[in-house]
Amino acid sequence: MRHVRALWRLARTCLHLAHGMAIVALLWPVLDASGRQRRIAWWAGKLLRLMGIHLDAHGLHRPGATLLVANHVSWLDILAVHAVCPQARFVSKADVRHWPLLGWMVGAVGTLFIERERKRDALRVVHLTAEALRAGDTVAVFPEGTTGDGRVLLPFHGNLLQAAIATQTPVQPLALRYSEPGQPISAAAAWVGDSTLVNSLWAIASADGLVVHVHTLPPESSAHADRRALADHLRQVLAEALAQHES
Predict the structure, then answer these.
(1) Distance separating alpha carbons of residues 174 and 213, to the nearest angstrom
(2) Which of 101, 135, 224, 247 has a 20 to 30 Å separation from 211 between CA atoms?
(3) Cα–Cα distance, 177 to 167 (Å, whole number)
(4) Which three-class secondary structure state does DSSP give residue 77?
């Protein structure tokens, strides 16, 4: 029965993906920013529901230019954030741009791509992020640089925080956690090690009662901050929030 349910969820998800592609291809050129954001929030929220995932969101996002800083557990993180903050533009690894179909859609919603293997590319993305913040955009980053198991935060890299410091843009921490009944930290949601996207999709579709918790914390000032000190501070803030809400 679990396998049948997982297959049903994946089939509906594929149809929803096709629907999203049609929206981007046909409506994106004629929609204004508000119209795009409404559809991003709807599409992301519905995909979570189709995969059997309940969204539990707390806190308010700061309007205007903001750098969102979140811990990174799964490819689902982007959907969870977009469901509650559709205006967010993510900084994502360049590999995502080459994913079949999804890469095209991710690029269409304003994602900034970074080639993490090239140190010089980080400086280019810092400049692009700063430009986006000056324009009043919300930009979301994962300072761990890769996904963790959801239990322990990896060290935070402060490179992209420089964009907020240079523009004196507030930084807003956002804590992401996945749980299942009886499991404060879900193993099914974590996308770590050698797990492929297909493996992750199957594990998530097979899960029972998966919940993604999105806890938006108060904004922090970045003006005149040292980026390494700011990175350590934000990591501590997120670690405390995650520990507090595990029970």
Answers:
(1) 10
(2) 101
(3) 30
(4) helix
What is the distance between the alpha carbons of residues 30 and 36, in angstroms, rounded to a whole number? 9
Nearest Cα residue to 68 out of 142, 158, 144: 142
Domain span at residue 240? 2-244
Question: What's phi and psi for 212, nearest 5 deg?
Answer: -105, 125
Range with the lowest mean pLDDT among 114-123, 188-197, 213-222, 228-237? 114-123
pLDDT-derived band at 112, boundaries 50, 70, 90: confident
User: What count of Cα atoms within 13 Å lies in the side-chain half-sphere of residue 148?
Assistant: 19
pTM: predicted TM-score of the whole model, two decimal places: 0.92
As for how many domains the chain has, the answer is 1
Q: What is the CATH number of the domain that holds 98?
A: 3.40.1130
Do 20 and 43 touch, CB atoms closer than 8 A?
yes
DSSP the chain: -HHHHHHHHHHHHHHHHHHHHHHHHHTGGG--HHHHHHHHHHHHHHHHHHTT-EEEEES-PPSSSEEEEE----THHHHHHHHH-TTEEEEEEGGGGGSTTHHHHHHHTTPEEE-TT-HHHHHHHHHHHHHHHHTT-EEEE-TTSS---SSSPPPPP-TTHHHHHHHT--EEEEEEEEEBTTBSS-TTT---TT--HHHHHHHHHH-SS-EEEEEEPPPB--TT--HHHHHHHHHHHHHHHHHHT--
